[in-house]
Amino acid sequence: MIFDIKNLTKSFGAHTALSNLSLEIREPGIYGILGPNGAGKSTFLKLMLKILNPTSGEIYYNGTNIKNIGNSYFNEIGAVLEGNRNLYWFMSARENLLYYGRLMGMADRAIRARTEELLTVMELKGHEDKKVGYCSRGMQQKVAIMAALIHSPKILFLDEPTLGLDVTIKASLVSEIRQMADSGTTVFLTTHQIDVLERLTDKLFILENGKSTYQGSVDSLINSQKSQQRTEYLLAASDGSMDVLASVVSAENVEIEEKKGQLHIRIPNLDEAAQARLMQVCVENHLRIISIVPETPTLEEVLIHFWRSHHA
User: Fold this and answer.
1) Residue 93: how many CB atoms within 10 A of its CB?
2) pLDDT at 310 over 70
3) Strand 64-65 to 15-25 pairing
4) Per-residue pLDDT band at 30 (split at 50, 70, 90)
5) Which terminus of the chain is more exposed, N or C, with fewer CB under 10 A?
6) Average pLDDT, stretch 285-302?
7) In contact, 152 and 159? CB cutoff 8 Å
8) In angstroms, how far is CA 218 from the centroid of its own chain?
9) Structure confidence at residue 252 (pLDDT)
10) pLDDT (tens digit, 9 = 90+) per residue, 130-188?
């Protein structure tokens, strides 16, 4: 087992930021840590990075409590924290990478080779000798990511890594992270960008008010929200068709929209009675059904419904 996290709790005075969190990370992959602002995501990462000490609970890495591990732990991890806190702003990008590479025990030749690779991925060639403090927000984010990746870490902690990146660099970074995970790196990722989450995450951990409310895959989460799954019926509109469909569309959660001579009717999959009524009305009134298409809700829709259902 890579990480065994047992009853992890962190309190700041009367405020409990994380409460009795238990997780098992058995194999490499990309683990998305989700939750609204204040859920405990950043606190969790800081505990894993030993920036904070837990109030109670334990974190085991490869069977050893991380509080008993020295610098060897940091040699195997990389991190990008929100705000680029892993950078020295008075140094250039190249100097930052040289510093962190040496800190991780890399030879200068290896650092130079890896730096060239990362400059290409991040499209920073020509800017590597510019002081980080004078760089744009997006360029600073790129350098922060490069510093975290310089030694090809076994464990990678990413707090909003794609924030401030343009579309092409974001795509390159997503590809780099995916390749690292496929090669055996364990990645912990927090992000509010749903597209990044959908493309990268192997397993989700959802936190709310410091507590774990979901652990599992994206597909399992979507399948668990059956009330959000719908089927769209596309009908040819005709005079009076809306009137004969009144008994169907009056049902709760049934949506109907007329566009360009066609009726789009969306019915929850759980409402089998409404679907049966629609089919009966179409047959009895000779309404032509053009298509029937199952609709799977987006991850964003599922997450919104998930959080709302937990706060109802």
Assistant:
1) 27
2) no
3) unpaired
4) very high
5) C
6) 84
7) no
8) 10
9) 67
10) 999 998 888 888 899 899 999 999 999 998 888 778 888 888 888 888 988 998 999 99
Q: What is the pLDDT of residue 302?
A: 80
**Which of 35, 68, 37 is CA-nearest to residue 53?**
68
Q: What is the mean pLDDT of residues 222-240?
A: 81
DSSP H or E stretch at residue 234 = strand 230-236
Residue 191 and residue 162 in contact, taking contact as beta carbons nearer than 8 Å: yes
Long-range contacts of 170-177 (CB under 8 A, 24+ apart): 170/196, 172/121, 172/122, 172/123, 173/121, 173/122, 173/145, 174/199, 174/200, 176/121, 176/149, 177/30
199, 200, 204, 207: CA torsion to nearest 10: -90
Share of the chain above pLDDT 70, in %: 96
The amino acid occupying position 309 is S
131 contacts: CB under 8 Å, gap ≥ 6 = 89, 90, 91, 92
Q: What is the DSSP string of 186-206?
A: EEEEE-S-HHHHHHH-SEEEE
Sheet holding 262-268, edge to edge: 255-259, 262-268, 230-236, 289-295
CB atoms within 10 A of CB 114: 18
H/E element holding 248? helix 246-249
Least confident span in 89-93, 118-122, 245-249: 245-249
For residue 304, the SS3 value is: helix
pLDDT greater than 60 at residue 9 = yes
How many CB atoms within 10 Å of residue 64? 12
CA distances in angstroms from 155 to 85, 98, 101, 151, 183, listed in the order given:
18, 20, 16, 11, 12
| CA–CA distances in Å: residue 61 to residues 18, 33, 127, 219, 305 | 19, 18, 37, 28, 34
Distances (CA, A) of 17 to 8, 11, 44, 53: 10, 6, 9, 12
DSSP annotation of 226: G
